[in-house]
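DOMAIN: structural biology
WANTED: fold as tokens
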Amino acid sequence: LDEEVSLPTVILTTSTTTSATNTNSVSYPLDGIETNENRCNNNNVDEETSAVIVQERIQSWVRRLLVDLGICPFTKSDKRSGQGLGDLGVPVGKIAYHYSNANVDCIPLLMADAWTAISEMIDAGPSGRNGISSILLAAPTFDTNFPLWAGPVFAMLESGVSATNSEPAIGVVCFHPQYATPDGSSWPGFGHMHSVPRLRKWLEERNPNLSEMLSEEEVAAGGAWQRRTPHAVINVLRAEQLEVAEGRRATGVLYAENIRVLIGNEGVGSSKLAADLMEEQQMGSNKGDQG
């Protein structure tokens, strides 16, 4: 505290202390791996191998959930997204997979990795051979801390979007292996699944028979499984794509149908979804354990 001023003031200073176990971090656009030295990281991982393995896991999830189960109607492959919106002026572009090895005590470096990926997406534009439709940035060291990921990390991301006046350009969406659907008692912030009460309302309107069958916990699971990825993931979408997609789809219909597909009486079921996710988390573990 600075006692020389009339109001209490917190003065933040930087530390020059360097951890002996945290010396560098990596951020990879995964079709051309590069290493940034002298940053915090998890040094116990074979960086190049783990980055490739993580991409394989995330791509498997995209194929299984978004494509095969149709949870995202505008993603038809694990390489490109934005399908079905061309008549509304939104081109199909590639999905840019990124990897950050920033550790949980190095959140500013995670922010730097995210904004590097965003900058590359903006520079690439939405169309053409190198056009980017969306980003999936995985940060495996945050896999076991959902409260940190969903709370402070995404609050920082959203604050950055707002501070840079980037709302007209991008939106960020939260995914995590332990994702929990908001219970509606408070607003979780942008980028999160709709609350359980809202999902219940849409179910009652669109599929009252299913709504009567499902408990609150099952409705919450139906929302959560739409956001549970093999690793902690920052999804970045173009704002114009989000706006057009919202206009093209009936939101309540989509989420009610997704819940039916995932945990309805003829749906996949939570047990199978959990087993599939675990299988993806273990993919490539013989090359280097990053699960």
About this structure: Residues 1-28, 31-38 have pLDDT under 50 and may be disordered. The radius of gyration is 20 Å. DSSP finds nine helices and six strands in the chain. The first strand starts at residue 27 and ends at 29.
